[in-house]
Write a structure and sequence with these properties.
α4 runs parallel beside α5. By secondary structure, this protein is α/β, with parallel strands linked by helices. The protein has helices at residues 13-24, 31-40, 44-55, 61-73, 90-102, 117-126, 165-179, 182-189, 201-224, and strands spanning 2-6, 27-30, 81-84, 109-114, 127-130, 136-138, 157-158, 192-196.
C-alpha cells in the first residue's frame, strides 16, 4: 500500500507512521525528517532549507520534489511506503502524480488526519525529540519515564526550533493557505480516507488499521474480478 499522510502540523502523522513502520514494516519517508537530517549534516539542501524551516515556511517546491522523487526511486521497498509531509502544495501533488504514474507506482490511499487547532497547538508546544535516535515524546500525552531522557537510548531530549508558539502560528497559516486544498484534490481522485486525529494515539492507530485492512481486501477483490 502506497500512502500519503496529510494533515496540519502536530496532527500525529509522524507518530502513526512510526507505529505502522514498527508494527507492519512500512517504509516511512518523512520530508521533515529528511530535511532536518540535511540541515544537521550541513549539506547543500540543508543550507538552503534551514532558514525556511526555522521561519515555518515551506522549502521551495522544486528542491523538495527532486529530493523526494530521488528518495522514492532509491527506496528499498516501493510497494509499502508512507509519504509523510509530502506533497504539501498543489504543484508538488501534480508533479508527484506525473512521476509516479511513469514509474507505475500510483498512490493507493491518502489519509487525512482531521485535527482541531487547540489539539495541534498543545501537541506541538509539548513535543520533545530524542537527540540521538529521533524518538518522539510529549511532555503530557507521551512522557518519557525519566524527564528529559529518551526511554529507548538514554540520550537527551530537545525541543524543535520550529515548535515555538510564533513559528507554530506561521506553520498553521501556511497549512491553511497552501496545503489544505489537497484534501479536495485527493477527494476528487476517490482515494481520500479520514481519521480522527484528535483521539489518543492508540485509537487513531485502530482507525487507521481498520481503513488499511478494508483497502487491502478491496484490492484483493479487484484482482480476483
Ligand atoms: P514536518 O517535520 O513535516 O512538520 P509538520 O508537517 O509541521 O508536522 P509535524 O512533524 O510537526 O507533526 P506530525 O503531524 O508529524 O505530528 P507528530 O506525530 O510529531 O516539516 C517541518 C518543516 O519542513 C516545514 O515547516 C517545512 O519548512 C519543511 N517541509 C516539510 N515538508 C515539506 C514539503 N513537502 N514542502 C516544503 N517544505 C516542507 O506529533 C506531534 C506531538 O503530538 C508529539 O509530541 C507526539 O508525541 C504527540 N502526539 C501525536 N499523536 C498523538 C495523539 N493521538 N494523542 C496525543 N498526543 C499525540
Amino acid at each position: 500500500m502506497k500512502m500519503v499522510f496529510l494533515g496540519p502540523p502536530g496532527a500525529g502523522k509522524g507518530t502513526q507512521a512510526v507505529m505502522l513502520r514498527e508494527k507492519k514494516g512500512f517504509l516511512h519517508l518523512s520530508t521533515g525528517d529528511i530535511l532536518r537530517e540535511n540541515v544537521k549534516n550541513n549539506t547543500g539542501i540543508g543550507k538552503k532549507a534551514k532558514a525556511f524551516m526555522e521561519k515555518g515556511e515551506l522549502v521551495p517546491d522544486d528542491m523538495v520534489i527532486e529530493m523526494m522523487l530521488d528518495t522514492i526511486k532509491n527506496a528499498r521497498d516501493k510497494k509499502d511506503f508512507i509519504l509523510d509531509g509530502f506533497p504539501r502544495t498543489a504543484y508538488q501533488a501534480k508533479k508527484l502524480d506525473n512521476e509516479l504514474s511513469k514509474l507505475k507506482l500510483p498512490i493507493d490511499m491518502v489519509v487525512y488526519f482531521k485535527t482541531g487547532i487547540n489539539t495541534v497547538i498543545l501537541r506541538l508546544t509539548g513535543r520533545r525529540l530524542c537527540s540521538k535516535c529521533g524518538a518522539n515524546y510529549h511532555i503530557v500525552n507521551m512522557p518519557p519515564k525519566k524527564q528529559g531522557i529518551c526511554d529507548k537510548c538514554g540520550a537527551e531530549l530537545y525541543q524543535r526550533k520550529d515548535d515555538s508558539e510564533e513559528t507554530i502560528k506561521k506553520r498553521l497559516e501556511v497549512y491553511d493557505n497552501q496545503t489544505k486544498e489537497l484534501i479536495d484534490y485527493y477527494k476528487a481522485q476517490g482515494i481520500l480516507k479520514e481519521v480522527s486525529g484528535d483521539l489518543e494515539a492508540g485509537k487513531v492507530y485502530s482507525e487507521l488499521s481498520e481503513i488499511l485492512s478494508t483497502c487491502e481486501s478491496d484490492d484483493r477483490n479487484k484482482v480476483r474480478k
